[in-house]
Amino acid sequence: MRLFTISLLVLLSFFACAQDVTYTLTVNSMNGGPDAGRDVVFIETSTYERLAFKTDATGRLTVHFDHGEKWLGSIGEMRNCIELVTRGSGTANKMTTYDPEGYDRENQVLPDRRSINFTIVDQGTIRPNMQSANTKSLVTIVLQDQDRRNHSRVPVQLVCYETQTIYRATTSVNGAVKFEVPVSNNYEIDVDGVESLRYIDLDERPRDITLTILYEPRTFSETNGSRFVVQNVPANVQPSSSHARIKLKIRKHNSPAIDEDVYVRMLKSNKVYQAKTDDQGAVTFMLPIGGQFMIDFQFQRDADLIDLSRVRGIAYKENTVVYIPDPRLENIEEFIPKIADLIEYDMHNFVEAQYPEPVEGDMDFYLKWGNKFNDQSKEALLEIGLKIKSKMTRKSTARLNVCFVIDKSGSMGGGIQQLKKSLIRFIDQLNSDDIVSIVVFDGSATVAIPAQEVGDKKAIIDVVHAIQAGGGTNIYSGLIQGFTEIQKLDQPKMVNRVILLTDGYGGTPVETIVSYTKSFTDQGIELSTVGVGTGYNQALLSQLATAGGGMLHTAGTTENIEEAFQRELQSILYPMANNATLTVSYNDQIIYRQLYGYANEQVTNGQMTVGIDHLFPGLDKLALVKFDIINSTRAIEQQPIIVKLEYEDAITGKKITKEKRIHPEWTTATGALDMSIDMEHKKVMAVAIANQSLKVMSNTFHGGDRAGALVATQSAIDQINALFPDAKSEGLIAIVARLQEYVNAFEYFEANNDYGSQ
User: Fold this and answer.
1) Which residues on adjacent β-strands are paired with residue 497?
2) Is the pLDDT at 561 greater than 90, yes or no?
3) Cα 156 → chain centroid
4) What are φ and ψ of residue 322, in 5° steps?
5) Which run of H or of E encompasses 2?
6) In this structure, are residues 435 and 453 in contact, taking their beta carbons and an 8 Å threshold?
């Protein structure tokens, strides 16, 4: 069905006259009969107008479109399964089966493979083992083109995320390849380097399965260099079952950008495709279907998004992309942040700690050593886990008036699904009489949901599902619309709050945006900010949150957006504690050196104290205290570390104190002991290394030592890679990529003839 949809978009665009598109949809149930009374919703993608219908007794629906340019249609829970361009006149028909589970599987968002340490199994020659027949299935993949010709010597692999295993083989002379794989698992099928071209899900029954996949050999060539993939694309190249033909027309300063470097970066991959525009400012790429790609230029990142994640079949596309050079990238003095503009990465965005629910009270903490002790010990690591009870009753009775100002620019493309999921969960927790509005912005701002009572939420959620990534980043225009929506239905004793989420920079000066925000603080409208990823304007968001009286949240990856939203909502609804502090007392043999996880600690003789902010229900927060060991002897296990948590209950004002002790554990083992063997501890160390290197980079660079800044940044990358030699979490991948941007920038401005970032 997707093949027809792509053809339809091209066909209807030929008609540039009066607009009148008739669209007929037929929906069948899984048993083959008509799916009567099924909800069908269309959302116009530029205005967010919503049209709601139901199929008739025959499962059919006919809609006449006389306005709008592009509509996304959802059939029940099959979200955005219809994409209809309505510029001009024409008719179109679509028949589909209502199968939400199958649709979700087809469009499943897959993990970043770089974050998984796969086991590779070579299955060049399969001789099925009869003894394992009750636990494995034999899967045969046959590659055939449209003329039914088989293709040999083509690499194929089955990728299983559940078992973190990749099975590899190559097709034989008859175009077939066999795999013997465990049952009860799902497998992605890679063909000729194209990931997830198809998939096969196996139940618990051992079977012998043959699957024929349409495969067209490439009619272009490509060379994999050390940093870029360079393609040789003939003028008459045709798209295939594995690659879409993407023609980009680049404009710069209102003219075709001739002989301009264009970089197409594949998300969740290390691949970057490079090419130069021709004398018309155009360039053509052959890109693997099923992927998402970001367009970069020498002095602009995330210029636009190419989304092929839902493409199936033969696809070709033309896009016009405007190249707007970023002054920060043109001038390295602006690109490298000053110390005053640096905000440390919050390690909690990269660590997945889980602690038990408190037994007494709403909040508790847990202690664990990261190492044992012997006479060789020089260092020690103490883990402190803070936990707040997950389920709380709503303590605040004030109605909420919340406006989400959401960055939907192209750079959000890889995380837009998680953003929508997080936004829907937030809305689900609002009361029916709370006020909600949503403003989306890219290069300009649009009110997707005007300020209104939440009500039954369905119409709001339908619109949220239709938000798509694309375009630039204009934070200022988004905030203007956001504050306007809050003012529309403002009433006494309401909690009025704008929540800004962005992963990028805007072109408006910081002073202008902050000054504008302050003008609303006096009116009782607060602003909180959520910075996503590693490349957002940390200084701007920090100043905005301070000026707006709200909170600054950081989401190291898009997976952390939901947690950031939860922190924001629960900071309003569930006031937890005031003046919370954590105190660690130690002895003469164990000397405090460093704290990971909190900042601005106070150290006195034998004691370290730190304030704890941003407490909310369900909080799991890990902190690490690093100690130096002085003359380690067995007597050390007799001297405990004392940890004390103190706070005031936000409702009763009662002061609460909890104290725990932990003794060092001595071992008779000889030789040095690994101080940090836990994976989560290594993540904390990696974030700390990144934060420290950024400070050194900034100090040395702005002190005139560019070579030293490069060395410091590259050293951080090397240290993190040494901690994680095989696979990193998605958050750490993003941090390393950010550090690499700085390294590349230093190298570019030194050589002045290379690309500034991958």
Assistant:
1) 402, 526
2) no
3) 28
4) -95, 125
5) helix 2-12
6) yes
- Given a contact cutoff of 8 angstroms between Cβ atoms, the answer to whether 559 and 730 are in contact is yes
Average confidence (pLDDT) over 609-629: 86
Contact 21, 86 (CB under 8 A): yes
Place of tokens 């309505």: 86
**Cα(600)–Cα(448) distance, rounded to whole angstroms?**
41
What six digits make up the tokens of 254?
């209102």
| pLDDT per position as a tens digit, 185-236 | 999 999 999 999 999 999 999 999 999 999 988 899 999 988 899 999 999 8
* CA–CA gap between residue 285 and residue 271 (Å, rounded): 13
Q: Could you report the per-residue pLDDT of 222-280, keeping only the tens digit for each? A: 999 888 999 999 998 999 889 999 999 999 999 999 999 999 999 988 899 999 999 99
Work out the number of other CB atoms within 10 angstroms of the CB of residue 387.
20
pLDDT tens, residue by residue, 42-60: 999 999 999 999 999 999 9
Which residues does residue 143 pair with via DSSP β-bridges, in sequence order? Answer: 213
State the burial class of residue 219 (Cβ atoms within 10 Å of its Cβ: 0-12, 13-18, 19+): middle
The count of C-alpha atoms lying within 13 angstroms of the C-alpha of 292, restricted to the half-sphere facing its C-beta, is 23
Helix/strand/coil percentages in the chain, nearest 5? 25, 35, 40
List Cβ<8 Å contacts ≥24 apart for 447-450. Answer: 447/48, 447/481, 447/485, 448/48, 449/48, 450/485, 450/488
555 has which bridge partners?
A: 532
The residues, ordered by sequence, that sit 6+ positions from 342 with a Cβ below 8 Å of its Cβ are: 538, 694, 695, 698
Which residues fall within 8 angstroms of residue 486, CB to CB, at 6 or more apart? 401, 403, 437, 451, 496, 497, 498, 520, 525
Q: Name the residue type at position 213.
A: I
Mapping DSSP to helix (H, G, I), strand (E, B) and coil, where does residue 411 land?
helix
Which DSSP helix (H) or strand (E) runs through 179? strand 176-182
CA distance 429 to 415: 22
Using the 8-state DSSP alphabet, how is residue 424 labeled?
Answer: H
- Statement: residue 132 has pLDDT above 60: no
Task: Compute the distance between CA of residue 69 and CA of residue 75 in angstroms, rounded to an integer.
Answer: 20
Query: Which of 262-276, 353-367, 416-430, 555-569 has the lowest average pLDDT?
Result: 555-569
Q: Any residues with CB less than 8 A from the CB of 511 and at least 6 apart, and which? A: none
653 φψ region: left (φ > 0), alpha (ψ -120 to 50), beta (else): left
Cβ(210)–Cβ(140) below 8 Å: yes
The overall average pLDDT reported for the chain is 87
The residues with which 642 forms a beta bridge, in sequence order, are: 585, 661
What are the phi and psi torsion angles at 32 (to 5°)? 95, -15
